[in-house]
Amino acid sequence: MRLIWPGFLWCFIVILLLPLAYLWLLRRRRQAAIRFSSLTIIRASMSRWGVWRRHVPPALLWLGLVFAVVGLTRPTAQVTLPADYMTLVLAVDVSRSMLAEDVEPNRIQAAQRAVKDFLQELPNNMRAGIVSFAGTAQLVQQVTDDREALIEAVDRFKLQRGTATGSGLLLALSTLLPDSGVNLQAAIYGDDFGRWGGGRTPVPLVAPQPPTTTKSPVAPGSYENGAIILLSDGRRTHGPDPFAAAKQAAERGVRVYTVAFGTVNGFIPGWDGSNFYTQVDERALQGIAKITEGEFFRAENSKDLAKIYSHLSSKFSLERKETEITALFGVISLILVLLALGLSLFWFRRAA
Fold first, then answer.
1. Which region, left, alpha or beta, applies to residue 199 given φ > 0 means left and ψ of -120 to 50 means alpha?
2. Which CATH architecture is the domain 84-191+207-316 placed in?
């Protein structure tokens, strides 16, 4: 808990002196002669409960003042609240290794089914975009809140050769933060890409964006309005280094949640009884999540993948924020003061 106005803590000196003043008054009253107008009052004072009951309202009043002073300091705390607005970009591996049948019916179909269920369960205040990557990366669906468009985009996945994990991550980052200054062409093809082919203008991966100024790096994981979910089942064979791409995401505060999909014994059935074995590169996916302050998940079947996406759906629908809780202390203080006054009037009204 953090205090915005800690200077008001000096009021606790007065608050701590009040119990001492109360004890001094009680001692003084014992020394004075007391006349009772009714024997009922004497009997009540002789019982243990009657003795302690007279101290309950002052104690409640004192606690109310304590909470009021804490409220004056304007305390803040990390509170979990529903996310006001968030954007997610899913980067899905569509390399041919996704044909492996270690996950029924195969990896790609199981992944498509889990992704579609995940999109349908997202709350209404969340938008999503979809990127696919194999030998290179492509934007399958721009960020939108249209669930039907997102589901149709997942059904349009086409398997290709190669695995360019870094390309997929960079395109997802550019889709999430189009004004963040991510130079996709230079990162994926190099600075000389524009001079290839006799100076012909290359075909851009996404629509051209206006020039942006380079922004200073921020703390990893500090971006609270969106995140990237990257699902892959293979080892990078093409494109830029995924760790360098993860560093760019971390410098912009974007968390990347990675999902390793498949088993170590995954294979693609071939001809004449020959099989092509595929293995998940967990080390790279763990590194990407660690660099960006995200999380790494492992899924070896469709049920595991469904559980992961269900967990992520609930995670992104809530977020932790530094929230001022002065009102909470004010309400508690008011309740204690009113309770002290009410009990005092109820218990001691006859004595009046």
1. left
2. 3-Layer(aba) Sandwich (3.40)
